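Revision sheet: structure tokens.
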Amino acid sequence: MRKKGLSMYQTQKLTYLFDSLYAVNNICFWHYTKDWELLDTNCPWINEVRNFFFDSKDDALKTYASNSTMPILYPDRLCLTWAIQPYIVDDNLASFYVLGPFLNSSVSEINFKRLLDDWHMSISSQHRMMEVQKEIPVIPYSLFLQSVRMLYYTLYGKTPGNLTTTSFPTLNPLSSKNTLAPTKKNGSTAHDITITEHSSYAMECAMLKHVETGNIHYQDELQNTELSADNYLVGLMSPGDIVRQEKDEIIVFVALITRAAIRGGMDPDEAYSLSDYYIQQIESPDCTDLNNIMDIHFLAYDTFIHRVHEIQLQGKEYSPFVNDCIALIHRNIYEKITLEDLAEALGYSTYYLSSQFKKQTGQSIGDYMTDLRIEKAKEMLTYNNISLTDLSAKLHFSTPSYFSSVFKKRTGLPPSAYVQSLSKPASSSQP
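Predicted:
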């Protein structure tokens, strides 16, 4: 039987663990009694964030903790996520350890302000929360789960098994009481309904417009704005299941961009085939990591935009020498060809060729060649077993690391993650 309380050795290990987590990733710890009286914390924003945690008298949580030592994931209404670790001594619930809060992805100030608007607080308190939000760590779930595993091992001297985002028990915040419960405009409590967060119609139109117009420069335009694929919200569809929620969001998003691509000139059969492909990727049994799910999200958005861009370019008439330049690039894509080589072969100055190419196609020759090389890289990664070193050399990138950097910038995925995303049901085919 386990001795009552923690040994001095355990206490020292816990202290070291909590200090390390905070120093490296800014992850805070909280220690509560079984009745949810706060014993200790190193959180510098204690007065600001603890009110958004769940009610300390949650009976469902106590019932769960009396039957399991497994940690519990708790995503609150501010998009902050916590991990709750029951501590069992002599088969009795002794206390709770909590890690958090953290964010899995950045939340824009506008969206965070919208979440705060549902809570009754003074203007000064709301302003303080906006400042605190900038300090809350943004880390991947995989890293946070590693921290939870270390806490579990320190308390129990063993690992919590195969703890993943899908096996992580989740406490639904909508079923928990809150000391600062948001209210509806008619004054009744928000617990009467399911509170969901949606992106504005204007934001949706802006996101889809990039697809419809084939705007391959969308990343530059979305930068430093609240309009981006990572904070596009379609509402709460799977409460209590983070992985399922993310998958559902992306399926809805893919359906929307598919129709936008058709409006942009993409053949419906091709668009729906591409849509089916990405949905199959999302629904693959192996697709359980939130980071991989988001990678597919970005890849789908980027691919549809570039497909529409290519289709719209096909309908444009270029001058004969620009068409010749494009053909020359395609024939020599596996050669180390330069702007000077192209200009000499076509009989024009480098300045005239580059300026006319950019004017007519909307891209510099360098960007066009890079995009084409990345498309060739995607083909080789899909159909060939080729090393990163050989691939980067074949396509004349200076180093494998530089190739990886360019590949990720263009596709949203590093090469290794792109290869993993290709795993799909055997019956499906590459679009």
